[in-house]
């Protein structure tokens, strides 16, 4: 009986640790990009485990992942999706929860009201879904 309790306890603890594991992010950025570093900090502060990779040819990264047409300064890979630019964590979490059939999401350009770029103003930042080939980006969320 005691052995059974120990086994059950171990299983519960293991399951709980998996539930709280940080979401892994691989983020490609230019070595000289200051706002990219701020975005990495923002993701880490919000519980993401970020591996930042300095990349001299960001155009090649964007082409490889199919986001050249919605480009920003950095490109991240999260849970099989591409997250392009200064996307708020709320949109990333929505992406991970809903798991739509898209390449990823993007905050194109360098919007001043986005994480890592300045003070966020709720309801002013449009995040686009990057569809698979042959379709135009559509609104994914407004943060």
TrEMBL record:
Residues making up the signal peptide according to the UniProt record: 1-21
Top-level division of the source organism's lineage: Bacteria
Keyword line: Signal
Residue spans crossing the bilayer: none
Keyword Ion transport: no
Pfam family, one: DUF411
Keyword Signal: yes
Protein name: CopG family transcriptional regulator
Organism: Ferriphaselus amnicola
């Amino acid at each position: 009986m005691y052995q059974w309790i120990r086994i059950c306890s171990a299983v519960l603890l293991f399951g709980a640790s998996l539930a709280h594991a940080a979401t892994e992010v691989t983020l490609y950025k230019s070595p000289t990009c200051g706002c990219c570093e701020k975005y990495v900090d923002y993701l880490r502060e919000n519980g993401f485990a970020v591996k930042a990779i300095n990349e001299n040819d960001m155009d090649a990264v964007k082409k490889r992942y199919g986001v050249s047409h919605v480009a920003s300064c950095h490109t991240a890979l999260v849970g099989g999706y591409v997250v392009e630019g200064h996307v708020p964590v709320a949109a990333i979490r929505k992406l991970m929860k809903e798991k739509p059939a898209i390449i990823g999401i993007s905050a194109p350009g360098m919007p001043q009201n986005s994480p890592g770029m300045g003070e966020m103003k709720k309801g002013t930042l449009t995040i686009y879904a990057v569809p698979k080939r042959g379709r135009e980006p559509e609104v994914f969320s407004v943060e």
